[in-house]
Amino acid sequence: PNQLSTMAMNIFRLIGDYSHLAAIFLLIRQLQTARNARGISLKTQELYLLVFVTRYLDLFTTFYSLYNTLMKIIFVSTTLYTICMIRFWEPIQSVYNHNQDCFPHVGLAVLPCAVLAVCIHLARDPFYFDTMELLWTFSILLESIAILPQLATLRKYGLVENLTGNFVLFMGVYRLLYIFNWIYRAHTERGYRHHYLVYICGVIQVLMYTDFFLQYLRGTRVCSDPASSDSVTDDTAGSSDTTEGLLFESSRKRCGNSIDKSQKRETTV
After folding, report:
1. Three-class SS string for the chain?
2. What's the pLDDT band for 164 if we cut at 50, 70, 90?
3. Between 216 and 88, residue with greater pLDDT
C-alpha cells in the first residue's frame, strides 16, 4: 500500500483522479438541482465511504504529499456530504425511495469482502498480522463491487438521469485510466512492485461499468410525450425535475407502448 500511495504522478493518474472528482461533484449537482435522489443509490455512497475510510487511515500516520493528502480528504468529505444530503436533507430525505435502493450491500458486499480480505491476509503469512494492510486489502476488494447497488438501482428505476449517468461514466473512466496508470508505471518505474489483487479488482470494475454502458447506449432518449415519461416514472409523478434521461432496454417497451396508446388517442380524435 505504501508504494501505491507514493506512486509517481503521470497523466493517467492525474486525469483519473479528476475524473473521480468530476463523478462525485456531478452527483452532488444532481441532488442539488433535482432536490430528490431518483435513481441514486445511497448504499453505493456508503460503500465508497467505507472504502475511503479503511484505505486512508495512513492520513494519521504518514505524510506523502500535499496533493495526496488533499485528494484523500476531498474524497472522504464529499462522499460523506452526499450521504448526509440523502439521509437528512429535505426534501431529498422524504422522497428517497428505499424500495429501489434495495441491494443487500452488507450481506453481499461488506461481509464477503471482509472474509476474503482476512483469508488473503492470512494466506500471505499466517504468523504476521497487520491491521493497516488488512484494511487496505478490504478496501480494494470492496471498491471493485461498490458500484453494484447503483447499477441495481438504475435497473429498477429504468430511467437514467443525465447527471447520474455521467456519474457512472466518470467513475468508469477513472478506473480505466488507473489501469493504464498501472501499465505505464510497470514499464517506466524501475523496481515497480506489481499488485495483482489491484489489477484483478480493477478489471472487475471496468467489466461492470462496460455492462452498464452497453445498456445505456441501447436506451433511447425519453420522448417528450407526457404519457411516455409518466409510464416509466410513475413512482415519481408530480416531480418538477425536467432533466432529460436515457431509458434502459427494460424500459424501452413501456415507453413504446405508451407512444402507441398516445397515437391511438390522437387518431380517434
Report:
1. CHHHHCCCCCHHHHHHHHHHHHHHHHHHHHHHHHCCCCCCCHHHHHHHHHHHHHHHHHHHCCCCCHHHHHHHHHHHHHHHHHHHHHHHCCCHHHHCCCCCCCCCHHHHHHHHHHHHHHHHHHHHCCCCCCHHHHHHHHHHHHHHHCCHHHHHHHHHHCEEEHHHHHHHHHHHHHHHHHHHHHHHHHHHCCCCCCCHHHHHHHHHHHHHHHHHHHHHHHCCECCCCHHHHHHHCHHHCCCCCCCCEEECHHHHHHHHHHHHHHHHHHHHC
2. confident
3. 88
